[in-house]
Amino acid sequence: MSKPHWRPARASDLPAISAIAARIHPDLPERSEVFAEKMRLYPDGCRVLAADDGIVGYGLTHPWTQHRIPPLDGFLEQLPGHADCLYVHDVAVLPDFRGGVARDYVVAIEQLARASGIATLALVSVYATQPLWQRLGFRPVTADAELREELASYGVSATYMLRDLAAT
Known about the structure:
The protein has 168 residues and is α+β, with helices and mostly antiparallel strands. The chain has a single domain (5-167), classed as Aminopeptidase (3-Layer(aba) Sandwich), CATH 3.40.630. Helices cover 29% and strands 26% of the residues. It is built from 5 helices and 7 strands. It has helices at 14-24, 32-41, 101-115, 130-135, 145-151; strands at residues 5-8, 46-51, 54-64, 85-93, 120-125, 139-140, 159-164. A 7-stranded mixed sheet has the order 1-2-3-4-5-7-6, with helices on both faces. β4, α3 and β5 form a beta-alpha-beta unit. The radius of gyration is 15 Å and the shape is globular.
């Protein structure tokens, strides 16, 4: 059995991505069309974790604006012209394949950000994932009223986090 590895996501991966999303995030449903749009707008940030028995995880990232959160299950329509961060929309990996793979994805996204002249990564931590993201260098941000409103659709434990690449 070969070690799972990240590769660029393809349109043909959408059913697997949607199935994993439904399993990992049952309380945060998103339509496959929303995933497809992210892949269309920023294919470089969209990867799948491939293993012998198919797709076992995915990561979706795109340029965005710090301290703003794209709506859950909402279309972006276009990427901001003056993006100042790469927004990690979601990294979801089936339980049997966890253990270091999120770090591998973040390393790839960090390289992508640096190559794009972007010095910050951003994400929303959901469920109990904040310790994982903190181990990967992200820090929680105190949310202002507008950010709290945007976070609401992500659940009560949602935390906005940033990682400054200049400091690493």
